[in-house]
TrEMBL record:
<dbReference type="InterPro" id="IPR001005">
    <property type="entry name" value="SANT/Myb"/>
</dbReference>
<keyword id="KW-0805">Transcription regulation</keyword>
<feature type="domain" description="Myb-like">
    <location>
        <begin position="55"/>
        <end position="106"/>
    </location>
</feature>
<protein>
    <submittedName>
        <fullName>LOW QUALITY PROTEIN: transcription factor MYB108-like</fullName>
    </submittedName>
</protein>
<dbReference type="GO" id="GO:0003700">
    <property type="term" value="F:DNA-binding transcription factor activity"/>
</dbReference>
<keyword id="KW-0238">DNA-binding</keyword>
<dbReference type="InterPro" id="IPR017930">
    <property type="entry name" value="Myb_dom"/>
</dbReference>
<keyword id="KW-0539">Nucleus</keyword>
<dbReference type="Pfam" id="PF00249">
    <property type="entry name" value="Myb_DNA-binding"/>
</dbReference>
<dbReference type="GO" id="GO:0043565">
    <property type="term" value="F:sequence-specific DNA binding"/>
</dbReference>
<feature type="domain" description="Myb-like">
    <location>
        <begin position="2"/>
        <end position="54"/>
    </location>
</feature>
<feature type="domain" description="HTH myb-type">
    <location>
        <begin position="59"/>
        <end position="110"/>
    </location>
</feature>
<keyword id="KW-0804">Transcription</keyword>
<feature type="domain" description="HTH myb-type">
    <location>
        <begin position="2"/>
        <end position="58"/>
    </location>
</feature>
<keyword id="KW-0677">Repeat</keyword>
<dbReference type="InterPro" id="IPR009057">
    <property type="entry name" value="Homeodomain-like_sf"/>
</dbReference>
<dbReference type="GO" id="GO:0005634">
    <property type="term" value="C:nucleus"/>
</dbReference>
Length: 218
DNA sequence: AAGATACGCAACCGCTGCGGA
DNA sequence: CTCCGCAGCGGTTGCGTATCT
């Protein structure tokens, strides 16, 4: 008999109970967490709530240009099966958030262009048009020239095939990160901190781009 | 002002892989 | 070797809010 498992949105009291418990006892063993906190939630639900909302350093709000760039590049490399992997390179962002971003924004614009989001055509559009454009915008909003690709600012920033493997990612986002050879701890103290980047948020999917691409395809 | 529609996000569901008994 | 329970993941759904008519 199901013991009245509660579903739906979490209340502030539930959040407080859960975060208090996890702070004291550390995470893991989520079924135990659910049991000992007295929450009428499943372990899965507790885990999800913690990861997506309660854990420290969760970043909320607009996806920045730099984050958009990373998502596009990493997704083009890894596809839909790696949201959590992509999330690892966007500290503070959850796989759920990235997945939502992709589904609501990117797929929407693929639809506008009347092509499948998984099609070669859409991927080429990403690679050849949107990503370079995004790199330019990042450079413009940060007021910097592009250190490593100044003379080829319209060239395609790509994930380096030669250096990319399951454990090391080397993405050319030189517009925002001059050194991408090590995206470990150093990366975590990176570009997203600071109001300038946050306030400079603007959509990659500006109307002029969409219009241009539609013409290109027609 | 009110209803319809679109959008964004939080949360749930079902599947998979792993580790322990 | 097999079974079982659990954590983790991607896909999907549903609800609240914003925007449009």
């Amino acid at each position: 008999m199901a013991d009245h498992v509660k579903k739906g949105p979490w209340t502030a009291d539930e959040d407080s109970l859960l975060s208090h418990y996890v702070t004291l006892h550390s995470k893991g063993h989520w079924n135990s967490v659910a049991h000992f906190t007295g929450l009428k939630r499943t372990g899965k639900s507790c885990r999800l709530r913690w990861l997506n909302y309660l854990r420290p350093n969760v970043r909320r709000g607009n996806i920045t240009l730099q984050e958009q760039l990373l998502i596009l590049q990493l997704h083009s490399r890894w596809g839909n099966r790696s949201w959590s992997k992509i999330a690892q390179f966007l500290p503070g962002r959850t796989d759920n958030e990235i997945k939502n971003y992709w589904r609501t924004r990117v797929q929407k614009h693929a639809k506008q262009l009347k092509c499948d989001v998984n099609s070669q055509r859409f991927r080429d559009t990403m690679r050849l048009v949107w990503i370079p454009h995004l790199v330019e915008r990042i450079a413009a909003t940060s007021g910097q020239s592009l250190p490593a690709c100044t003379e080829t600012s319209t060239s395609t920033p790509t994930i380096s095939e030669s250096t990319l493997d399951d454990n090391s990612v080397n993405v050319d986002v030189s517009a925002s990160c001059s050194d991408t050879s090590d995206w470990g701890d150093g990366f975590e103290a990176g570009w997203w901190e600071g109001d300038e980047v946050e306030s400079s948020f603007e959509s990659l999917w500006i109307e002029e781009n969409i219009h241009f691409l539609q013409q290109l395809f027609d």
